[in-house]
Design goal:
single chain, 185 residues, alpha/beta, TIM Barrel, six-stranded parallel β-sheet, three-stranded antiparallel β-sheet, 6 helices
Length: 185
């Protein structure tokens, strides 16, 4: 979720300031095309389909919370690396997921979640080790991991990661199936 011109948009790509271009790493896209708004996403996805809404730096957490209040009962969760957004969602009965992408965030996490609701952690794969998973399990009941590629599946499942976030979910699901076929559920 990005806040752009007063509206929350559903996209992963970033804007390039005033230029009509969206970008992320090695990808460029035209910025003049219509962009999906959160309201459109919620209206187009069946109400029983779970959604994980990842809030980016530019987000209006209070406005988004008010919008999500209108969708109570729908399976939603909010996630962000910008932890200051997350307390706004604590009054809602939806999972709150703290996201970590750096060693610095890993070190700061215990203080950040102290006294806060933290239902899960979304952790970049490069931060996971047997020791970090043990420490993270003391802070939250579930761990999500990204980006997962098919060859990451064995170690992610061995660590007991509850959710795998992938760019190619079909290939990862096949790898999970192969792993479970050999090792059992």
């Amino acid at each position: 979720m990005w806040l752009f011109r007063g509206r929350h948009e559903v996209r992963h790509l970033k804007t390039l300031g005033p230029l009509p271009v969206l970008w992320d790493r090695w990808q460029l896209a035209p910025g003049w095309r219509a962009r999906t708004r959160v309201e459109e996403l919620l209206a187009s996805v069946p109400p029983d389909v779970p959604l994980l809404l990842d809030l980016k730096r530019a987000a209006d957490a209070e406005a988004l919370r008010r919008l999500l209040e209108q969708h109570r009962g729908r399976p939603l969760a909010v996630c962000s690396q910008y932890w200051s957004h997350l307390p706004a969602f604590e009054p809602l009965d939806i999972p709150i997921v703290y996201s970590l992408a750096s060693e610095r965030q890993l070190r700061r996490l215990p203080a950040a979640v102290r006294g806060r609701r933290c239902d899960a952690l979304s952790v970049h794969a490069r931060l996971l080790s047997a020791e970090s998973v043990r420490r993270l399990r003391e802070l939250a009941p579930a761990i999500l991991c990204w980006p997962i590629r098919p060859w990451d599946v064995p170690w992610a499942l061995a660590f007991g990661i509850e959710a795998l976030i992938a760019d190619d979910p079909g290939a990862v699901a096949a790898a999970v199936g192969r792993w479970v076929g050999v090792h059992g559920p």
